[in-house]
Amino acid sequence: MGDCRPLGFLIGLPFALVAMVLSVVGAVIWILGTVLSCLCPCCICCVGLANLAVSLIKLPFKVITWFTEQIPC
Q: Which of 53, 55, 65, 71 has the greatest number of CB atoms lying within 10 Å of its CB?
């Protein structure tokens, strides 16, 4: 079956751009968390920080997928 949501991408683009900025922030946090966990392996909070950063990096794909699914056919 054909997908009939051609404008979903264009309408969701502003949300995806905001999510893209958050993913860049997530990448920076992930790098800092990785460096901190290498310097001080006893710091367990860096693991949670790295998981949060990975979630932020995946955010643009989740946002654009969610937004296009919300548009009725």
A: 53
Domain carrying residue 37: 14-66
Q: DSSP 3-state helix, strand, coil percentages of the chain (rounded to 5)? A: 80, 0, 20
Report residue 26 CA to chain centroid gap.
Answer: 8
How far apart CA 51 and CA 55 sit, in angstroms, is: 6
**Confidence band (pLDDT; 50, 70, 90) for 6?**
low
Whether 64 contacts 12, CB under 8 Å: yes
Which residue in this structure is represented by tokens 């999510």? 19
DSSP state of 3: -
Instruction: Answer yes or no: is 19 within a domain.
Output: yes
**pLDDT, tens only, 14-73:** 877 787 787 788 788 778 877 877 777 676 666 777 777 777 778 777 877 787 777 766
